[in-house]
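for the writeup, i need someone to sanity check this before i put it in the appendix. the sequnce is what the collaborator sent (i think, or maybe the updated version? ugh). structure was predicted straight from it, no edits. if anything looks off just tell me and ill rerun, i have time this weekend
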Amino acid sequence: MASNKDYFADEVGVLSPNQLQVDELYAGEVGYLSASIRSVADARVGDTITHYDRKAESSLPGYEEATPMVFCGLFPVDADQFPELRDALEKLQLNDAALKFEPETSSAMGFGFRCGFLGLLHMEIERLEREYNLSLITTAPSVVYRVNCVDNETVECSNPSLLPEPGQRRSIEEPVVKIEMLTPKDYIGPLMELAQDRRGEFKEMKYITENRASIIYELPLAEMVGDFFDQLKSRSKGYASMEYTFIGYKESELIKLDIQINGEPVEPLSTIVHRDKIACMDCECDGRKVDVLALMVGF
């Protein structure tokens, strides 16, 4: 109902556990429907299906369309693999309606795609490389920032290269999440240190059991989309777990970092970082570790 598309149902049935075709599905039954739906966007998970001639008055409650929160650029190392990358993303999208992608071009990196993902655990680039035998260059992950301009207009920006010029913007807001880390008490210190290093704001800690604690922080989503989960597992020897929820936007001292290669700026490598982290950064570029001097633009 949300997509407002209509299709002819070729087959309906139930799982018992194999697919078993039936003539009709009745209220309260759990079953499947087969139709010639060519786009996953026309039948997203959680949407309501109703009869064409006897439409329901309203959709079932609780449906919300998945909105990408994390973005990055994907470029094939071998330019000839661009068609294969496009096909791989299209196949991946069949199983994941939250995935969004659009073509992106760079004079330095060639043809690629700007991809939007649902969250940090969702950004499994290794799956593309492993299942589709691709060698990829991944740009720094980014989130959706809100830019408050001097003309009182608010612009949402997920691509750092499209950030309004310094003279046009008044402030930048970044998405903030509440994260709860569950950990054995032996790893409380290392995990609190991790959250503090990622600009986290401590909120609460409580013991669930004698040996297990819950630690709650608020921190920028941008600090989580990289290696936060890997670091959490590493510092807790694999025993800690986490979950997070989006709570809103918060103004912060953010600036744009441009990276130049051979004196030429490479827009896909641009990123937005906090002022406190701008002095000198290490950047992983095409498998080589290089020291990148920050070029500050604006704030």
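The chain has three domains: 1-65, 70-139, 173-252. The CA atoms of residues 141 and 243 lie 19 Å apart.
thx in advance!!
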